[in-house]
Design brief:
single chain; about 130 residues; about 30% strand; 4 helices; 7-stranded mixed sheet; globular
Length: about 130
């Protein structure tokens, strides 16, 4: 299956930077939203990530993907945000997937048992092309 064409949407989805975190949300041609996080996802950077993920959920995409490939560290507040996003997306009928979780994220998910809660994918393309 070919990856969906992507389009970038304007603010609030434009790249934003908090201390140690860059967030970008883009929409694909088929209506999915991909929220790419780069840096550390922790109590110090939570506001930008929360704003992006909540905004993406409210926009009612056909699918919401959190791209975690470039997240080097995630604390309990970051994990809590991902769990809340998963619950909110589920309530709204929006599939939520984690794409390319870094080693640090996978370790956190494994230790906490949260790996069984999320739909995990090795890449954004895989998350976007998996059956909904």
């Amino acid at each position: 299956m070919m990856p969906a064409q992507e389009t970038t949407v304007a603010s609030p989805s434009a790249p934003t930077t908090a201390t140690g975190l860059t967030v970008q949300v883009r929409r694909t041609a088929d209506g999915a939203a991909v929220c790419s996080l780069t840096g550390d996802l922790d109590v110090e950077t939570l506001t930008e990530a929360r704003t992006a993920l909540e905004g993406a959920t409210v926009s009612r995409p056909t699918l919401l993907v959190a791209d975690l490939e470039h997240v080097g560290f995630c604390d309990s507040s970051g994990l809590n945000l991902l769990l809340k996003t998963c619950m909110n997306a589920s309530t709204a009928g929006i599939p939520f997937r984690l794409a390319a979780p870094s080693h640090a994220i996978m370790r956190l998910l494994d230790i906490t048992g949260a790996n069984s809660v999320f739909s995990l994918h090795t890449s954004v393309d895989e998350a976007l092309s998996a059956p909904r």
